[in-house]
């Protein structure tokens, strides 16, 4: 790998475990990622914000806040209000968001609850997909047997 200094111009941002990557372009598309691995040797595009929380804000809580439909729609509105080739937000847009922060312990509890709830939704969606495929197979087999 080339050194950070020799990386292409659009890949200059260093990341580390615990960072939240958030796309500056078309925020309503919901392109984000929480870095949950040792990423000291990675760099990312300049079109991704690298968001890092301090001890007063839990990164998972912040991720749920930032990726909520209400905030994504608000950020999309700000992005579309800017002139340019495509809708894009700036770090200033993120830094100007107002968040009522509960204590960190409560932030962790809230984010754990939301994560388990989202995991359950994902599992149910996967089960529905499997059931749908099985129903299609059974339906097809039933009609082929009748013909």
For the record, give the distance between the C-alpha atoms at the N and C termini, rounded to a whole number: 61 Å
Main sheet makeup? 3 strands, antiparallel
Low-confidence stretches: none
So how many helices? Answer: 4
| Average pLDDT metric | 89
- Biggest sheet strand order reads 3-2-5
Quaternary structure type: single chain
Percent of residues in beta strands: 5-15%
According to DSSP, the number of beta strands is 5
Q: Would you tell me the structural class of the helices and strands?
A: mainly alpha
Rounded to an integer in angstroms, the radius of gyration calculated over CA atoms is: 21 Å
The run of helices and strands is EEEEEHHHH
The backbone outline, from C-alpha atoms, is extended
Fold and architecture overview:
This protein has 147 residues and is mostly helical. It contains four helices and five strands, in the order βββββαααα. The protein has helices at 59-66, 69-81, 91-95, 104-146; strands at residues 13-14, 20-23, 32-34, 43-44, 48-51. It has a three-stranded antiparallel beta sheet, with helices on one face. Strands 1-4 form a two-stranded antiparallel sheet. The longest helix is centred in the last third of the chain and has 43 residues, at 104-146. It is extended. It starts with 12 loop residues before the first strand and ends with a helix.
């Amino acid at each position: 790998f080339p050194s950070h200094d020799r990386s292409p111009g659009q890949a200059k941002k260093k990341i580390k475990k615990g960072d939240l990557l958030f796309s500056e372009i078309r925020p309503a598309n919901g392109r984000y990622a929480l870095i949950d691995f040792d990423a000291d040797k990675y760099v990312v595009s300049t079109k991704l914000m690298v968001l890092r929380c301090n001890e007063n804000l839990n990164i998972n809580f912040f991720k749920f806040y930032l990726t909520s439909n209400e905030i994504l729609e608000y950020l999309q509105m700000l992005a579309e209000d800017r002139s340019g080739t495509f809708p894009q937000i700036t770090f200033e847009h993120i830094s100007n968001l107002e968040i009522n922060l509960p204590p960190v312990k409560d932030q962790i509890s809230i984010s754990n609850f939301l994560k388990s709830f989202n995991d359950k939704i994902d599992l149910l969606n996967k089960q529905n997909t499997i059931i749908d495929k099985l129903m299609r197979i059974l339906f097809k087999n039933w009609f082929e047997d009748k013909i």
